[in-house]
Every structure is written in structure tokens, then in C-alpha cells.
Amino acid sequence: GAVVSQHPSRVICKSGTSVKIECRSLDFQATTMFWYRQFPKQSLMLMATSNEGSKATYEQGVEKDKFLINHASLTLSTLTVTSAHPEDSSFYICSAPTGETYEQYFGPGTRLTVT
Amino acid sequence: GQNIDQPTEMTATEGAIVQINCTYQTSGFNGLFWYQQHAGEAPTFLSYNVLDGLEEKGRFSSFLSRSKGYSYLLLKELQMKDSASYLCASMDSNYQLIWGAGTKLIIKP
Predict the structure, then answer these.
(1) Each residue of B54-96: pLDDT tens digit?
(2) Which chain A residue has the Cα nearest residue B102?
(3) CA-based diameter of chain A, in Å?
(4) Does residue B43 contact residue B37 with C-beta atoms inside 8 Å?
(5) Residue of chain A whose alpha carbon sits nearest to that of B101
(6) Which residues in chain B are closer than 8 Å to A34, comparing Cβ atoms?
(7) Which residues contact B43 (CB under 8 A, 6 or more apart)?
């Protein structure tokens, strides 16, 4: 199957700082990538849809100025959490469909802890 | 509105069979997915159904009834490693996945 990587896998940052998370499709091109957030014992919450070469589409309630998404190439999307606060601590996961099927391939996730 | 319902938690015995149900209501329908997620890890794909009926894949099978807005995931010959959360997701008319809250499956020896 297709492979999606994420970096870093874990990050601890201080309140007020910014954190960048990278999502890469390693063996396919992804014109679309999805960013999810998952709090403990809860399901996946779609934050935004990242589109290569155009602006991301954010879900209702997600601040686009706080969660900056850049999809600069067909294999890389980045999510930057700006001015992070403890309530932003969560598990962030990206996914991408290959375009051949509707299946989404998930990255391994990034555990963000804001102190 | 769009809604996915599945049980919060289920318990089963090693070697047994368990069925996890999912009902969905979405704006349009382009298929029903099941994913497995172990604690602290990302989800992994299990199955995709878009036509009515049963799809069998080894120990796991998935069933869909579009008229009833209903699906189930059937796990046979349960193993301890099957302890995980199982996520049901419906793809709507915009090809966006609408996720259920997940069913935590606990396997006991």
C-alpha cells in the first residue's frame, strides 16, 4: 500500500511558540491531503483539507490563522500551529488518497504537547 | 445532519467472533470504510464497501445495507492483538469522510 510519513512523531513546546508538522506521501503524488486532530478517547476530527497549489479548506470552528497549512508540492503538506497553547495539545494526523481508490492512507501521527 | 453511530465499547473472548455495528446518515453516499486504530497510533485501513452485501477478507468481513444505512464489521477467531478501536466512516457526496467516534474492542483471554 501507499506510504505517508509525518515528522516529528512527538514534540513538546512551550506555550506561545509555533510548531511545524510535515506530512509526506513517499510513493505517490497527493493533490489533496487531510489534517485531523484527535483528543484522547475521541474520534478523528477533520481540521482542514490541504490542496496542492491552492488555499486549504478549513472546517467550521478551525482558525485558519492559527493552523497554517501549506501544500507546496505534490508530496508535502505542512501544518503550523502558531502561538500554541496547552489546549492545542493533541494527536495530529494527516492522510492522503492516492487518487486510484477512495482509501485514505494515514501518516503515523504527531503527538503535540504544549507546556 | 450527518451522523455516524457505533457502540462505544465491546468486550469479547479470544478465539470468538464479534460484530461491530455502525449506522450512518450522510449527505450523499460514496462508500463505507472501516479502520482499525491501536492506542497512540494512526488508523489503518480494513475495508471499503459501496455495494450492498458482504465483503470477506481473511478473518475480517464487512457488510453494507445502503437502504438501511447500516454496516457491520465481523471479526472471527479473535486474537489478543485485535484489541483496538474500530472506526466506521461514511464518505459523503463531496468525497469527505464522516467519522464515527469509534468502538473500543477489548479482547479477554
Answers:
(1) 999 999 999 999 999 999 999 999 999 999 999 999 998 878 8
(2) A43
(3) 41
(4) yes
(5) A43
(6) 97
(7) A44, A93, A106, B35, B36, B37, B87
